[in-house]
Amino acid sequence: MEENVANLPMSDEFDIRGFGRVFKGSPKKSDRLISRPALDEYYDTSNRRRGIALVFCQMNFETMAKRQGTDKDREDICEELNELDFDVRVFDDLNRKKLLDTLKDVSKEDHTDNDCLVVVVMTHGEQGVLYASDSKYNVDSLWKNFVGDACPSLIGKPKLIFIQACRGEQFDDGVSFKAAPASNVVKDFVDSRNEPVVYAIPAMADLLVMYSTYEGYYSWRNPRQGSWFIQSLCRELTEHGKQRDLLTLLTGVIRRTAFEYQSFVPHDERMDCKKQIPCMVSMLTKTFYFTKKTRSKVVTAID
Length: 303
Fold this sequence. Notes:
- The protein is an alpha/beta fold.
- The chain is 18% helix and 17% strand.
- The strands form 3 sheets. Strands 11-8-7-3-1-2-12 form a 7-stranded mixed sheet, with helices on one face. A 3-stranded antiparallel sheet has the order 4-5-6, with no helix packed on it.
- α1 links the parallel β1 and β2.
- The longest helix has 15 residues, at 246-260.
- The N and C termini lie far apart (55 Å).
């Protein structure tokens, strides 16, 4: 039964309807979490380290086709992440258990001195699931160990997930439009008693998930030149990674993928002249920039 809020006592400090802007005082219960003013516009990048970047590259599978070209994607994205000073950890062809154990193990590390976390996955996929070398796993396994109180040292820090994988079997036929030719085309807050206050934020805050394609659709990869999405991401990071904010960068990735690529499969009309557009889901609460830090080396995990 719904509670009749009209009959409950009201005060300046509490708004049980949820529309209050700022609490003027702490709740009577010392352990109650309260909201805070949205004062910070930018994520803190003054930490000692940029953070960990996990790169899961699946080329070989027990029962599925080999993903030719993903090695180029792996090399290129690792180079860009290394240039942005991440502690890059590469994992090739993990089975389901090893992949999920790796995610859990990293979530147990201390990220206090890190700016953020990046996870890049390149594999086969379907709607809602991704594939390890032996079997599939739910896509939310990539971030569930890092959000909320699952990883306290990453609370309030960006968790950035990039997924290169199919999300279905539909093809994007594209639509035609007329446009003028481009001029240059190239192929803590403290209360009144000076005591720290523990504030509440949503458990899923500060998470960004970017998919290579829209839900239900095919994701394209060239066996020699790599995938459209990862290559677009690498180019944006190369050209603008140290100048533009993250959401502007990723909008550029979407634009590159959508405008500059088209499938060429002349022997199969069903797959020829198709398009692709990445999809981004952002729960970021602040603006994020990559800033210059001490360069770290790529470390490849050996199974």
